[in-house]
Amino acid sequence: MPRQQPTPEFPPQGLEKPGIEEAMDPHPHFEAPDYRAANKLEGKVALITGGDSGIGRSVATLFAREGACIALTYLEEEQQDAEAIRNYIQQTVGSNGGCDQVLLICGDVTDASFCKSAVEQTVSEYGHLDILVNNAAYQQHQDGIDDISEEQWDHTFKTNIYGYFHMVQAALKHMKEGANIINTGSITGLEGSG
User: Is residue 174 a contact partner of residue 118, using CB atoms and an 8 Å limit?
Assistant: First the structure.
């Protein structure tokens, strides 16, 4: 029987950026209880930026269930979400045949030195890096282009473009043939908003 899904109308969330997923009502689903893992990533190491919430949280959970050891980056303000996903993976995934090792790396991908440090910490902890998931992103809705400030534009590019570039630049020298880089994006990049 399919999992019961929440039905709209949802109460207004009103969360400041970055939002804390644990504070949302209803809580977003990330567990994918009907998914059957097949150890496709056994022995692999995945570094996921923005792995504490949203798509990153789901990717971390499913990759761990497939056997990958996880390193995830998060912003300091999202410590609660990062600890929640680490605890969830350690308590549920490892006992079901996945990898329960989760390395939390606090920092901001807009900082090139942090990107390098995140990769180095991952390789130091696990010995290698097989998968980089560039997922951390920033978007602030505005009604029109004239409402976008120079600071907002700069922050968006430093996160969504420069962050991805600096993570790849730092990771490539540690990745062997057959390794994977996954860059996530938003429909807003294709269709715009407003």
Answer: no
- The tally of domains found in the chain comes to 1
Neighbour count for residue 108 (Cβ, 10 Å)? 16
Query: Please, which residues have CB within 8 angstroms of residue 33's CB and are 6 or more apart in sequence?
Result: 3
114 is a domain residue: yes
Q: According to DSSP H, which parts of the chain are helical? A: 54-65, 79-88, 112-126, 150-157, 163-171, 188-191
CATH number assigned to the domain comprising residue 111: 3.40.50.720
CB 99 within 8 A of CB 68: yes
Q: What does pTM read for this prediction?
A: 0.87
Query: How does pLDDT run across 83-141, given as a tens digit for each residue?
Result: 999 999 999 887 777 788 999 999 999 999 999 999 999 999 999 999 999 999 988 88
Q: Are 31 and 38 in contact (CB under 8 A)?
A: no
Q: CB atoms < 10 A from the CB of 132, how many? A: 28
Q: How far is 160 from 59, CA to CA, in rounded Å?
A: 18
Domain with 158, as residue range(s), is 42-184
C-alpha–C-alpha distance, residues 166 and 174, integer Å: 14
Domain annotation covers residue 123:
yes
Choose among 126, 131, 124: nearest CA to 175. Answer: 131
Q: How far is CA 167 from the centre of its chain?
A: 13
Are 112 and 162 a contacting pair, CB within 8 Å? Answer: yes
CA angle 163, 70, 91 (to 5 degrees): 135
